[in-house]
Each structure stands twice: as structure tokens, then as C-alpha cells.
Amino acid sequence: MNRNKGKVWLVGAGPSDVGLFTLKGKQVLEQAEVVVYDALVGHGVLAMVPKDAELVDVGKRAGHHTMKQELINQVLLDKALEGKRVVRLKGGDPFLFGRGGEELELLSEHGIPFEIVPGVTSAISVPAYNGIPVTHRDFCSSLHIITGHKKKGNDYNIDFEALVRTKGTLVFLMGITAMEDICNHLMQAGMSPDMPAAVLQKGTSARQKRVVATVGTLKAASDAAKIETPAIIIVGKVCTAAEQFAWYEKLPLQGCRVLVTRPKELASRMADQLREKGAEVVELPAIQTEAIADNPQLEEAVASIEKYQWLVFTSQIGVRIFFEALKKVGIDVRRMAGVKIAVIGKGTKAEVENHGMFVDLIPSVYDGESLGRELAGVCRGGERILIPRAKIGSQELISELEKAGNLEIDDIPTYETVLVKSHLIDEKKEFASGNMDYAIFTSASTVRGFEAATPGLDYSMVEAVCIGKQTAAEAARLGMKTHISKVASIASVAQLTEELFAEKKKQR
Asked: What angle do CA 75, 76, 77 make, to 5 degrees?
């Protein structure tokens, strides 16, 4: 055992929306060697866990704990004593009914260094996402957060009369199974049965649901709406503001859960656009790209870049690897003055421009076949073309160029595509249970990666939003219902997803 002590971070993961995870929490999580996580941590945050981190699922939910609290405390100590960087990832905030204090006691006794990274609590964020301000000077002057959880057979250790006298907003966490008891205790303590109250299900997520009623009718209204856990209860006049201040549900993709399968380094921009429209996005790359480490063929081509008339890029990754090779070989970009550049798609075009160069040709349809045909059409004959791209690339591009009959083509593999699978999130279960609305695929290889990660899934349950005909054909091969964006761009994919979801909502 490593006798050097490690360190423990108690990190609040927030309510569910990954955008509410703090910057410090993200920074700490990305450096974790061990992650001990709860069931209430949102999928968006779980997707950030390093792939090589040791994972410990303690699965704490109301009425069911995968691991008892004493054992969790011991796990944190044992892993720290191994010299590891340990992140205890907890839903909400670790010090608000999160038993964070208990977990620190054993660490403190053994001199283990620790830090607390506060999280956004559901007591404030979930009402906010439902248009309910927990304080408003026209309604109240105090806020009280109470645990609704109690041991079976025991009465509440809560002074309900004192709570009623405050005339403040009351937020009960973990109280859904005891909702009727809570409401009865409040009324017995003198609260009017007509006091506004609300129950808020799965706040900040795509499955968010709100029921506004009164203390006297909340249980019946909740049962009628089939409210599920996790949910919170809020009592007070502020609940009447929900209809006026509701905003989250007005976003076009609120209620929509989307799986983004792009490689991790490319997923963020697409995820951001979808989240701006209100979607709950789970980023689970189906593939990752790995540059070919020893690549003398590429280095030789780069060293004599002047001999080419055209340089063709089919992906953003290909652009990055090419310019890294330029730097490695020591070639000044000015030696490319006579080389024209052709690309597929706006994303690849933008990546070229990031390197201070402009694109000469982008096809009318963003696929290999169109690029090959249109590039061959502008060539006069005898041109030499360099295509640094994936080891297994589209053959349509080469076929179209070869039809010209008088072009010299150097098709050089620069990176390989490797299939990857999440060890934290069961993608197959998410689709089989109908919990995911769409999967977004940006290449045929992402479809194949998803297939490898979900063996046995009935793919007819998957609605695939695809960039390009080849990607859609691969998804259709599995039996998925496919949709193709008008152009191969992030904006077009987001727009198509919005249109599809609007139709789905009409049918509900």
C-alpha cells in the first residue's frame, strides 16, 4: 500500500442539468483517480468522469442504499490511504442533507486532507426552473429547507407550529413518500388548507414536471399527475408565481433527451446548441480518434507539400493532425502558398480557418461522393492531391476522383477510429425504456460504435438524427428510424431535432 496519503474532495453535482455543475467541480472531477458516486448524479455530469478512474457506485436513493453510510465512509478512507485522488460525487450540495459532515468525520480522525466543493442545491434551483422564486418580498421574508425523510414508524422531529408561524417559504426535500403526513402536520399546526403548494418532479431535467395546488389538495393532485421521485415539495404563496414566471418549459427542446455520440473533443459545440434550446444532452462518445503515432508516409508528404496542387480534409481531426505534422517536421505554413484546400462541411472549414487559411472548395452536398465529383470537375488534369484522413475512409471520394483518370492521389491514413463504451451509463437501457428521444450520429463509425455498445437492443426503438446519407444508411441497416439534416452542420442538426420534437409533442 502507498503510505502517502491521498486526498478527498466532496463535490456537489447539482440537481441534474449539467450546466449547473460548478467550474471547480468539473476541474476536480477531471483529475479524479477514484469516483464514489450517488444515483442522483445527473448523466451529464457522469459523462465527465475520466475513463480510467476507478468507479464506486453507492447508489443512494430513498428506501434503497447500495452501500450503507458507514461503508461509504470507510471506502473514502481506504482509497485516500492508497494515495489516490478521491472524488465523492453527490447530487445537489454535499452539506445540505447530503451527510457530507458524516463522511468527513472519519477522514478528519485519520488526518486525511479534504476539500468541499459546494453544489447548486435543488431546494433553490428546481423551483427556479419551474418559475417559482423561493423568496419574493410581496409574499415572504424567509426561506426554510426541511428534510421530509423520517425513519419508518417514527414521528417527525420538526416543530411544524414554528414553521407555520414564520409565514415563510417551506421547501421539503426527500418528502414525497410522506407528502400526506407533511401536509396534515402543517394544517394541524394552523396552516390554511388553501395555502398554495407545489410538487416538482425531476427538476432541471427533461422529465421535469410541476403540479401546483394547495396544502389541502396537494396529495390528490400529485397522485393524479403520477409524480415520481426524485421530487421536492414547496409550500408558500410564491407557488402562485409559477405560471407567470415559467421559462424552462417554453424552450423548444425542453422535455427532450438527446444522446450525442460524437468524439469527446468534437461534442461540446453540438451539445451546447441543443442545451440552449432546452434539451437534456447526454454526451457519450461512441468512438474516439487516435493519431497514428509513427507515420513516415505523412511526414514525407508534409516535407514536400509544394508538390501538391490540392489538399483535401474530410474531418476536423484530420486538419488538426495535419498541422501538428507540419510543426513536427518543421515546415513553415508559407510553403503551402500554391496549394488549394478542399473540405467536407462547415466544421472542417472552420477548423482550417482556425489555422489562418481559407478553403477553396466546399461541395454543394457535404459528403465524400460530392466532394470527389466537384473537385474532379475543377481539375484540369495532372494535379497531385493529398488526402490525409482516417485509416478507414469513404471510398466514394476516391472513386469519383479516379473517374477523372489523370489525377495523382495520395490517400494517407493519419488517424484510427476506436469504438468506446460508457461504463457508467447503460445506453441500451436508456433507449429500451423509452427514456431517450433521439440519438445523434455524425458519421457511420459513430453508428457502429453505438451498435457495439448496445448489443441486443431493438434498434427500431431508436430515432436517429444523422448527418449525411452514408450515416443514415448505416443507422437504417440496424432498423433505426432515420432523419437526415439538410446540411452537414451543427446548426442544421439542432434545427432538425427541434422540428422533430415539435411534431412529437403534438402527438402526445
From this structure: 90
